[in-house]
Write a structure and sequence with these properties.
Length: 101
């Protein structure tokens, strides 16, 4: 299931997302916008898409549900990026340490 996330380091607390959909977004005085814990993302995704499109600093985005690996929460693409890392290996660069196999 998709979720909505707000980057609190980017949000400028303009309140527009709350104007667009106050069932999903909230803005408390002196804070950045938050996604309500009671938000139901399945109800009206059109409004959420509108808030994402109209946020002046692109602080809102869809995110896949959290993935837990080895008791650690990872971003959905984090493991994928790690899989794409290939360690260089060639006989010329490999070193042999005595006593180690
Ligand atoms: S529209 Fe964007 S910048 Fe404005 S309060 Fe919402 S998340 Fe923050």
């Amino acid at each position: 299931m998709k979720k909505v996330k707000i980057d609190g380091n980017v949000c400028i607390s303009c309140g527009h997302c709350v104007e667009v959909d106050d069932q999903v977004f909230e803005l408390l005085p002196g804070e950045t916008a938050k996604v309500k814990e009671t938000a139901n993302f399945e109800v009206d995704q059109t409004k959420i898409d509108q808030a994402i499109a109209e946020c002046p600093v692109q602080a809102i985005s869809w995110a896949e549900e959290e993935v837990v690996v080895d008791d650690r929460v990872v971003e959905p693409n984090e493991d994928q990026e790690e899989e794409n890392v290939v360690a260089p290996s060639s006989p010329e660069t490999e070193e042999t340490v005595e006593g180690e196999e």
